Amino acid sequence: MKCYYHNDKDAVGICKNCNKGLCIECVKEIENGIVFCSDKCANEVISISSKILKTYNDTNKIHIKNGILYLVFAILFLLFGVLIKSNLKFILYPLGAGFIIATILSLSNIRKLKE
Length: 115
Ligand SMILES: [Zn+2]
Ligand SMILES: [Zn+2]
Known about the structure:
By secondary structure, the chain is mostly helical. It has helices spanning 39-83, 89-108, and strands spanning 13-14, 21-22, 28-31, 34-36.
């Protein structure tokens, strides 16, 4: 593959944004192995990855919020189950257990960014 800008030079890298072949003169390396043809391309990819990061964090926040909500319900149902002396506790216990499972499922959806 030849450089997009210099037809006589071999490409040493490919722009991560526009996939153009780049020679040693044209290549701009910002991180190990990640190269760009221009600052414009670098900025585009950086802004995309920060958007992905934001979506990631927002999704995690929703999972944490749901997890806490389910946990509150679980505690309430189990607490009422313990306090109430009627047969209603046989409904409240499974409900409480269900919400504990929902809490675990919701919290297990939280992804660590470094994975
Ligand atoms: Zn580019
Ligand atoms: Zn070049």
